[in-house]
Structure formats: C-alpha cells, structure tokens
Amino acid sequence: MASEQLEEYLENILDIEEKHGVAKTSAIAKCLKVSPASVTEALQVLSEKGYVNYEPYRGATLTDQGLEMARKVKRRHRLLEVFLTDVLHISEENVHDEACKMEHTLSDETECALCKLLKAPARCPHGSLIEACDRDVESCSACLDEPEPAASCSRDEPLIPVTSLGPGQKGTIAFIRGDNSVIQRLTDLGLTLQTEIQLVRKAPLLGPVEIAVRRTRLAIDHAIADHIFVHSCGEKHG
Amino acid sequence: MSGCPDCDRCSTHSLPSPKKDEYVVALAGNANVGKSATFNQLTGVDQEIGNWPGKTVERAEGLLQHRGQRIRVIDLPGIYSITALSTEEQISREFIAHDHPDVVVNVVDASALERNLFFTLQLMELESPLILAVNQMDLAAQKGIVLDFPRLSDLLGIPVIPTVAIQGKGIAELSDAIIRAVRSRPHPRLITYGKEVEDRISRIVDLLPGGAGGYPSRWTAIKLLEGDSDAVWEARKLAPDAVAAAGEFGRELEKIHGEPAATVMSAERYHASEQLVAEVMTIRPPGDNDISLTERIDRIALHPVLGYILLALMIGGLLVWTFIIGAWISEILTAFLSGIAPLNPLIKGTAADIVFNGAWTGLVAALTLIIPYVIPFYLILALIEDSGFLTRFSLMLDRGMHKMGLHGKAIIPLVLGFGCTVPACLSCRIIESPKQKFLAAFLVTLVPCSARTIVILGVVAAFVNIWWALALYLLDFVLIVILGRLAFRLLPGESVGMIMEMPDYHVPHIPGVIGQTWQRTRSLIGIVLPSYLVGSIVITAAYAMGFLEPINTALSPITVLLLGLPVMTGVVFVFGIIRKEMTILALAALFGTTVFSTVLTPVQLIVFALVTMLYVPCLSTILALAKEFGWKKALAISALETGLAIVLGAIVFRVLSPFM
Fold this sequence. Notes:
The complex is a heterodimer. By secondary structure, chain A is of the alpha+beta class. Chain A has helices at about 5-20, 25-30, 35-50, 65-85, 90-100, 110-115, 140-145, 180-190, 220-225, and strands at about 50-55, 60, 160, 170-175, 195-200, 210-215, 215-220, 230. Chain A is built from nine helices and eight strands. A six-stranded antiparallel β-sheet of chain A has the order 3-8-4-5-6-7. A two-stranded antiparallel sheet of chain A has the order 1-2. In chain A, helix 1 crosses helix 4. Chain A starts with a helix and ends in a 6-residue tail after the last strand. The model of chain A is unreliable at about 150-155 and about 235-238 (pLDDT under 50). Chain B has helices at about 35-45, 85-100, 115-125, 135-140, 150-155, 170-185, 195-205, 215-225, 230-240, 240-255, 260-280, 295-300, 305-340, 350-385, 390-400, 410-415, 420-425, 435-445, 450-465, 465-490, 510-545, 550-560, 570-580, 580-590, 600-615, 620-630, 630-655, and strands at about 20-30, 60-65, 70-75, 105-110, 130-135, 145, 160, 280-285, 500. A six-stranded mixed β-sheet of chain B has the order 2-3-1-4-5-7, sandwiched between helices. The longest helix of chain B has about 35 residues, at about 350-385. The N and C termini of chain B lie far apart (about 75 Å). Residues about 1-15 and about 50-55 of chain B have low confidence and may be disordered. The interface between A and B is large, with 39 and 38 residues.
C-alpha cells in the first residue's frame, strides 16, 4: 500500500473514531469514496503493519502507533490549511482538498519551517486544534528564536492539549505553545513545566476550562488552554 | 540610601531603625487571599471584601493604633508576580520598590501555599523587611492541611503568623509582630535557586556598582537577567557592562532551557517554593471520599444548562427584587421628605432661597436614589460576590463576552453598572489589557444604572405601559452588544484571554457583606452628593436669572425638530447631565404636574426616556472616565453617546408617530 493511501486511511479512521468510538468499514468506505470490499482489504494490511486493531464486522480502532501517525498527518494538514489561507490566500473551498494532496509529501524539515513561518498557529482555518509537534522542545521560542532547528531528536510520546483531557484526568505540563507573554502569565500562576495539572471541567461552547494546579483552581480561556500540552499522567517525563 | 555607602556587606535593613512617629506597613499578596479582611481587622476601616480576585483596585490606606504606636497601613492590590504588568501589579510593585515601607506584611492563603510563596520569594528578593501572615487557616484545616509555622519561620528567616482574618483570629499577634518588626526589621534569609541561575546572578552582581538605583544588587541582577524593561532602562547608564552581561546570560539560559530567562526564573522560584512547602506542610488525608461543597455547587452553577438558568435567575432576581423594594421605600421616603420642605428646583427669589432650594432638591434626589435603589442592589450583589458565585458567572459568560472583545471578568463592572456607573467604571481596572479596560468602561456607561431605570420606570412604565419600558431596556442591551462589537473592531490594541482564579464557595460573612455595601455606598455618596448639590444650586440659579430660556431656544432645533419634544425639554436634558433622574424632577417642575401623560404624548414619553437613557453619561461618570482614561476619551464617549441618542430618538419619533 502506498504511504499516501495509508496515511489517508489513518487520518479518516481517526476522524470517525473521534466521532463514533470505532470506525466501521462502511463509514470508512463512505468517507474515502471507495468500495467496502477494498476498505476491508486495506484494513487487513494496516492491521498487519500494526497501525490498527481490526475486528471484522465491528470495525477498526487505531493502535498507539497508528494514532501517532494519524496525528502527525492531521497536524500537517491543518498547518498547510493555515498556510494556504493566510499566506497564499487560496479560496476557502479549495483549501481542504489542496492540503489533502500536499500533506503526504511534507518532510519533517518543511513542516517545522512552515510552523515557524506561521508562528506556531493554534487552530486551522476551520477551527480545529493543531496538534503539538513531536520535536523535543519545551516552548516555541526554542524554534522561533533560532535560525537553525533547535532540537532534532523527537519526543518519546505524543502530547495532548489540556483541552483534550477528560474531566478529572491528570497530566504533567510538557510544552507551552505561543509567545513569551502567554508563557510568562501562565508560569507566574504556577503552570511551570513538569507540573501536574488536572482538568476539572470544560465550560460549554468552547468556554474557559477549569483546571486544578498546585492546590488552586484556575479558569483559563479556551484559546490560551489550547497552548498547554501535557503528558497524560502516570508517564513521568525525564 | 542612608547607612554605610562604602560597605556593601552590611545591609541597612538589619540595623535598628530610629523610632519614628508613624511607620508605614504595606499589605501585599496574591489576589483573594484575605488581604482586605486583614486590612479591615488591623485598621477598622471598611475596605470592601468580596470573593472575587482583584477587587482592591486602588491601594487603600488606614491607621493601626497599637500599643501607643501609630502605623499607617496600605492595602495593595492583589498580584501574582512582581514581573507582570497590569495596572494593579504596577501599583503594588512601585509602592514596594520605590516607597520603601517599614515592613511588608505578605498575606498568604494557607491552602494554596505553593503558589503564594512564589510571590513571597519575589518579595524576599526585594529584601524588604517582611512578615508572613498565613491566612484562611480555617479553610486549610478543613482540607486537612497542617503547617509547621516555626519551621517555616526558620526557613524564611521572618516572623510567620497564622490568622483567620475574617474572624479576627491572629490579628492581635499580627499587630504585635508588626510593632516589633518596624523596629527590628526582620531581614529575610537568602533563598538560593539552582546553580545555573545563581552563577549568572552572582556574576551580574559583581558587575553592578554597590546599591545601584537604591535596589538590592541581587534583585537588580535578577531583573536584568529576566530582561525586565524597567530594570534595564534604569541600569543602562549606571552599569552598562552588567546590562550587556545579563543580556548574554539570559540568552544562554534560553538556549539551555528553550524558554526565556524570565520563565526560567519563575520556574526556579516555583521549584524553591515546592521545596519549602514540602518541608512544612503535611496533609491529613480526608476521612472519606466526600466531594467538597464547592464541587457539589459547581456541578449546578457551572452546568451547561442549569448554570445559565441559575445565572438568569440570579441577575433577574437581583434587578426585580431591587426595584420592588426600591419602589416601595422610594414612595415612603419621597412622601416623608417632601413633607419636611417642598421640592421645587425652579424658584425665583432671594439668593438664600435659591441656594436652599437647589441644595434641598439635590439632597432629596440623592437620598431617594441611594437609599431605595442603590443600597439594596449593592447588598444583594455583595452576597453574590462574597459567596463566590460571581466568579462562576464570569466563567459562564466568558464565551459571550468574547463577542464584544471582552472576557468573563468584565461581567463584574457590567453588573456593578446596574447600581451606579461611577464605581463600575473604576472597577474596570481589574481587566488586564488597556484596550479591553477602555472597552469595558465604554459599555458600562451604556448599562442602565439605577438612575436611568428610575426614569424609564417613572416616565414610560408609569404612563405608557410596562412593555415599552422593557422594550427600551432590551434596546439598550442590543446596543451594548452592537457597539461593543463595533468598538472591539475599531479600537487599536490587543485583546487577551481570561485567566482567573476560582475561589471556594463559602457562607457569606455578614459583617463583611454589610461593610462592603456601606463602603460602596459611601464612595458613591462622596462622588454623587457634591455634584448633586452644586449642580442643583447652579441650575436653580441659572433659572432664577433667566438663563434657561436661551438654552431652550438654542436646543430647540434638536428637541423640537428632530425629537418632536416640547421646547421646554431642552433645559430638562441640561439638568440630566448632573444626574439623570433629575430629568423627572425638572420635568415635573417645568410642567407643573407629575402626571406626565397629560402633557406629553406616549411617543414623546418614549423618545424622552430613550434619549435620557443614552445621551451624555452623568457628570460624575464623565469625571470618573476622565480620571481613568483622560479627558479626550471621556469627551469622545460623551459626544458619541449624545449623537447616538439624538439619531435614535429622531428615528423612533418618526417610526412610532404614525402608529401611536
């Protein structure tokens, strides 16, 4: 299977999984506009390669390896959308399709350069959150202020934005995206790297999220909270 | 600085200071830790207490007299850091750094010690004589937190006093400690950070001339390392080498950590704070898995549906209740006061008559506004605030406020605006960015305050019907949203999102609530009463001397041609600039009747109330705006709103006339 096709499958399975919990063959077929038979075939291949857990008739879910890959592609897709919209001013209806074609050929280096050029955007033009990159940096200034890419080694595990934690879930802060003033504001309130935080609740309609940190509770604007990335708890970061 | 200029090893702070007549003590600390309550207990002055962060918008002063010593106590606004730069943080930072109080009392929240000590460490860097008041010990105990105070005192090298300020516990001990401290000036122990930063700090210190700019060298070095713009500016001439070296070291730290040096320093302080807390705090695990009261209430108050219902009920109830009580008390009060002396601002006679009548009318207008409407409103608001509900409303409304370029915290000034615009404008200081602060103040001037509500009720609800009165209210809210969105787009500057602390709920502390209501009312009386009296006298005099006729004539193109109102209303609107509800009084006096439906048509009544609601904010508000934002902006708001009132009034007159 071509890597392009593989990535496209993983991306769509992630979308469907997020909505319905499991990606049924028929749903994937509808999404990719292919026959259910070829989806079944593809899922078997993906399963062999260790990207999905596939149970005939039930459907597919991503493995950790598959999830990481899917997130990486999603990140590239959304970064490209921002680039196409904000820099190239491509018309709105074409942005998604263009990005779909380009996302598979993007190298790590280009992705990083794109992220720097766009000043580490938080959301794509359609409002979806852009995943944190997998580079082993603690803040964006490590990249933005450096002419050369700062750290070349990648993180051991993917990061989740604090807004994606469920109520009651804990995580340790691994990375804060954005400019220094935001980071400073958060740091002064005790949101320093490696600190354990717990998501208490999310207000409806992308309202502020309430988190517990250092025995206090803070309500943080959703857009600011999007910048805070954590390792979900249990996994202590070196 | 005084002391030994040649020797930098001997700190002037540790020398016994000569006895002074009056000492200055500053209360500093995070927002919402009970600083205001501590201040009240120390001085007996009713500083407002509320359960939302950032309420002390300007530093308050009071006098502590203890054991024959006079001590001036300054309550600084709550801040989380000395680096960050909102108005409040600037006030505190400047006071501690420049005014050199004899002792700084750092009030901290016992149940959130880690975050509070972060700020304590910054105060210690400033090397000001320090006392730690560990407040809210009762709440901490409820959470099973046990603290070792002697050990904490030992580690920090300063007196540590446990308190429950709201109940007055520990205040006598704190007062004693203050008296001792103004003489002995307890000098905090040096808390060192990680080797990486300490090495760089000491190398910068070596490059600094002794006592540069009056600050401790170590503090200056840290600030330079953080790239603090004020510190760099001040040291730029005195110690250019140190500035250059600090810049270089800062870049090194940034390279190592991938974070700016200021963030690295904050992380270092938090690390030190964590270690201190680990030494002194033990937590008794709670006996059972009981969910806290706060969590249980929050499940309703912050529920996506129930939360908004609760919000609507609270705000609706606040207004309805206020005006039901208000209307009732107002009736009794007006009857009583007009029994003492008749109310007639428009009188010709001797100068004494004019002054008396003006002053009396002004006084009655002020009393019948403040006692029936403003006091009940503030009382209920104080209850909502003190219990902790107001912060929840901020959170729930944050998203909606974004539409106007504001965030959840702006709900506080906007709700206050229903009572009186003046304190509401001043409370906009709790908002961080200058753009959002101005935006909030602008919208606050449009919120129907109690004076405007009286006009709408007294003119439209009484003589047209209640639905038209509600329609005016609704129109006002729509205008606030539209103008908010427009201003958000047009005004330069950036909008920043909200980061707000969520305090636990607690049963309102009644003396505190009453104190706060009184405090707000008193500051209102201070601003409103003089302008009422003087304004009223001036206008009565103007009438007596025949100045009013020319005003009517001059304004008639607007009042008569555009708005379709009688020519006499020109003067009424001039009265309204002093206080809006005086328009009713003036209207009654000029027409010689209080039954307005006999002299004005329904359309005229509606247009009159609409224009009164929107045109120039009252004199006190203009003064408050000018104080906060300068005359240019204050006058621009006044002009804009007057224009808007005339345009809308003219449109409503033309649209409604064929139907009514």
